[in-house]
Design a protein that fits this description.
A hairpin with a 2-residue loop joins strand 35 and strand 36 (655-662). It is globular and about 110 Å long. It has a 22-stranded antiparallel beta barrel. Strands 8-11-12-9-10 form a five-stranded mixed beta sheet, with no helix packed on it. A four-stranded antiparallel beta sheet has the order 3-2-5-6, with no helix packed on it. By secondary structure, the chain is mainly beta. Helices cover 5% and strands 56% of the residues. The chain is built from five helices and 39 strands.
């Protein structure tokens, strides 16, 4: 019996040898160069091998029928072949480069990005809050990037020859309708939001994606944190206010709440001001973020409430006693979003934002009350067809309702308002031809119901990788935007304003160093115009304005050459002219400087347990009109200079002492001039300089973090 069993086993082994099939072939790249060491195997089995020095492979398998052959190698797309085992002989397999590998080309013309997956890291939350002179304001930090103009008396973003109304801000892909705190003329504003709410930023200085519209110059995208790292409490005590925050986590949920009270009165009683304050700037802000993981999806709800109150006597050369101006502002902003991974590599993103902004303004005997209520609803789908083709499309609805009542003792009340609603659809495809060449094609269609205007805006960009560390990109796009509230509340028989962007970008990145150079040309068409000193009920409005902006932006960043030192330098050249508002002819606007320079450095001194930050800002003179000459916007102010320093000292692991001084050298900066309405006895128009409320600004603060992680602190928030 034992003999029979042995005979059966021998016969079975012989039959199995004869039933095995040999799989063979060669593996090369797209150019025919052999790939050495590629992994080749039959899916679901242990049968396989690796390619040799000539790319050849050969192995046997006992599998039969239709099977899946898998070929993989680092930096190349995985190859699969579904066929009969008997047909897998003398195969010639060509692997395509993996366009998602780390050294692949990036579609980046016109865009600075920073975040978890960014390959072009520029400003992360730590960068924003430790930049000297920014005073913890994300807008102040972004003004150190190329493409922006220093307009210190305003505080908003002015990008590549566009005024501040041409730049929009988004949180988690949804519009923020009033991103800046309310203020008075020539008193700089700040962003409303805390920078440490955000995990990453994307600042597009031009040529931005088809997903975003109603902005002629740029968009700033802020992405909130998906999940806090731990539960903690943070307390802040500074010379101009105090604040606190707390974060709690449980299961798949988390809630963060913080509040801050700001009052400049004690500070302004110590530091001399050029402004005659009756009620110094005072504000209270509170915000909360709730997050909930639902399966493969994430739901986020953000709510922010801000109150602002101020009153002052504004200097006016034509009114000897000055002009009394008072402002009370209440702003509510809600933002909810949901993102989920669906089957078959689909991604769904949906959300809505809502804002209500109320102002009570007093200008001498005139009382103005206005309400701006806005909403944004959006849905977007993204499909990864393959590594080389990704599709992004969606639709959105904007709803706006603006009302204003102005009351004077002489003329009674005048009411104005409008509903500004629009619908938009967009679609965009990312096409990667290889690791070296990629293209983005997009189109956006918008219909504005108030203006009864429909526009189609194509967008495209192309990127080509020159070497392992460098590439160039091209971008083109058309962009449309409705005229501003100051115009629409009086006139709606107008057109959508238009700009067209042409961009050439060069990018070099290697071992913590980055060089970015970008040249651009931007044309303007259908800009809003009026024939009075400012928009009013009897103005004649048109959209016959036009203009252009062209320039060069340079950016260098290095965080590896010198231990514990990170620095960046930016330079922008701008040539721009436009005919808009009440301009009699094309001219360079007052907010545009031909040259802007920023130098930013941050150094960690271990022995001192300190981080030292230094920022220097320079801007060439800006145009202004001198009525003693015949030239419109024909003269220029002196250059702008500011040297800013901050110091963060770790008293202990979770306690920080912080000191910040802006314009430490006390440069006497002049932003513009106001001239008298009538000439004096010599036939000349007198003038006064428009300057900052004070030459310097000081902040001293103490920050305390209470958490389970005893090494965690608020250095990231400074």
């Amino acid at each position: 019996m034992r003999f029979i069993i042995s005979i059966v086993l021998v016969i079975s082994n012989i039959l199995s040898l004869y039933s095995q099939v040999t799989i063979s072939g060669t593996v090369t790249d797209s150019s025919g160069i052999p790939i050495i060491g590629a992994n080749i195997y039959v899916e679901g089995t242990y049968d396989g091998t690796s390619s040799d020095d000539t790319g050849f492979f050969s192995f046997t398998t006992s599998e039969t029928g239709e099977q899946v052959l898998v070929v993989s190698f680092l930096s190349f797309e995985t190859y699969t072949l579904t066929a009969s085992i008997d047909d897998m002989k003398s195969l010639k397999i060509k692997l395509r480069e993996d366009v998602n590998s780390l050294d692949s080309v990036i579609l980046n013309a016109g865009t600075f990005a920073a975040g978890d997956n960014s390959k072009v890291s520029v400003l992360k939350p730590l960068d924003i809050v430790t930049t000297a002179g920014a005073a913890g304001d994300y807008i102040g930090a972004f003004q150190t990037l190329p493409g922006t103009s220093t307009v210190a008396e305003d505080g908003r973003l002015f990008v590549r020859g566009g005024d501040a109304n041409e730049a929009n801000v988004y949180i988690d892909g949804l519009r923020v309708f009033q991103p800046f705190t309310a203020t008075a003329n020539n008193i700089p504003t700040r962003g409303r939001f805390s920078p440490f709410l955000f995990k990453g930023t994307n600042f597009s200085t031009g040529g931005y994606a088809a997903e975003y519209g109603d902005a002629l110059s740029s968009v700033l995208l802020l992405n909130t944190i998906d999940e806090p790292d731990q539960e903690k409490t943070e307390l802040s005590f500074i010379s101009v206010g105090l604040g606190g925050g707390n974060t709690q986590k449980w299961k798949n949920n988390s809630l963060s709440i913080n509040a801050f009270y700001l009052n400049l009165k004690p500070y302004q009683e110590v530091i001399n001001q050029r402004v005659d304050w009756i009620k110094p700037f005072e504000s209270f802000s509170g915000e909360a973020v709730y997050r909930n993981k639902i399966g493969k999806g994430l739901f986020k709800l953000y709510g922010g409430l801000n109150y602002t109150n101020l009153e002052l006597i504004q200097e006016d050369i034509n009114v000897s006693e000055g002009i009394n101006f008072g402002l009370k502002n209440r702003n509510l902003y809600l933002n909810t979003s949901y993102k989920s991974e669906l089957a078959n590599e689909w991604t769904l993103t949906a959300g809505a934002s809502f804002a209500n902004d109320h102002n009570s303004i007093g200008v001498e005997e005139t009382a103005i009350k206005n309400d701006d209520t806005s909403a944004h609803l959006k849905i977007k789908l993204r499909k990864r067809i393959s590594n080389r083709f990704k599709l992004n499309f969606g639709a959105e609805q904007f709803i706006g309702d603006y009302t204003e009542i102005a009351t004077t003792a002489t003329f009674g009340s005048f009411e104005s308002g409008f509903n500004n609603n629009s619908t938009a659809t967009f679609g965009e495809a990312n096409i990667f031809f290889s690791k070296k060449l990629a293209m983005q094609l997009g189109v956006r269609a918008t219909h504005n119901y108030l203006l009864d205007a429909t526009r189609i805006a194509p967008r495209t960009s192309l990127a080509y990788k020159i070497t392992t560390n460098s590439q160039f990109s091209l971008a083109y796009g058309d962009f449309y935007q409705a005229p501003q509230q100051e115009v629409l509340k009086y006139e709606s028989v107008l057109d959508l304003q238009k700009s067209s962007h042409y961009i050439f970008n060069y990018l070099y990145q290697k071992e913590g160093k980055m060089l970015r150079a970008e040249a651009y040309y931007k044309s303007y068409d259908r800009l809003a115009k009026f024939d009075t000193p400012s928009p009013q009920f009897d103005s004649n409005f048109t959209t016959n304005g036009d203009g252009y902006a062209t320039g060069l932006d340079l950016y260098w960043r290095d965080n590896t050459s010198i231990k514990n030192l990170e620095y960046w330098a930016s330079y922008s050249y701008l040539d721009t002219k436009r005919d808009y508002r009440n301009y009699p002819e094309r001219a360079t606007p007052n907010f545009a400087a031909a040259h802007n320079v920023s130098l930013v450095g941050k150094y960690w001194i271990q022995d001192w347990k300190s981080m030292i930050g230094i920022t220097y800002n320079f801007a060439s003179g800006r145009p202004y009109t001198n009525p003693n000459t015949t030239s419109f916007l024909g003269e220029k102010t002196r250059t702008f200079n500011s040297l800013n320093i901050n110091w963060a000292y770790l008293l202990s692991s979770q306690k920080i002492l912080y000191v910040s001084v802006s314009n430490v050298l006390g440069f006497d900066n002049v932003f513009n001039y106001q001239y008298a309405n009538t000439p004096n006895s010599n036939g000349e128009y007198a003038r006064r300089a428009i300057r900052p409320p004070a030459d310097r600004f000081f902040i001293v603060g103490f920050f305390w973090t209470i958490s389970d992680n005893k090494t965690d602190n608020q250095l990231d928030n400074l």
